[in-house]
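EI: anyone free to look at a 100-residue chain?
SC: sure, send it
EI:
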Amino acid sequence: MPGKVLSVGDALRNPVRRRIIRYLLEKPGASIRQLSRDLGISLGSISGHIVILERVGLVREERTGNRLRLYVDEKYLLRGGFGMHASLEEWGKGNNIYTA
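SC: here you go
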């Protein structure tokens, strides 16, 4: 994992983070365990990628009791990032979100 990710573009250069974003766009409110299981990536790796996505403002956490849910941050979407979904599709054209 890179030492510093300074921008949304830097964060989305990583294919795992693009898969996480696509997954959360399709299944908002997923837990880290769900992401790990469905994407076939270790909890430790998913957690590290989530931290980066949160730092650049793409993902936010919501806690309900002891349950943590993850969402693509609508503030980013409102700033014009909605086209990001199309960009993600271009980067991963023909790929299923559950595969590399």
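EI: The chain has one domain: 8-91.
SC: 👍
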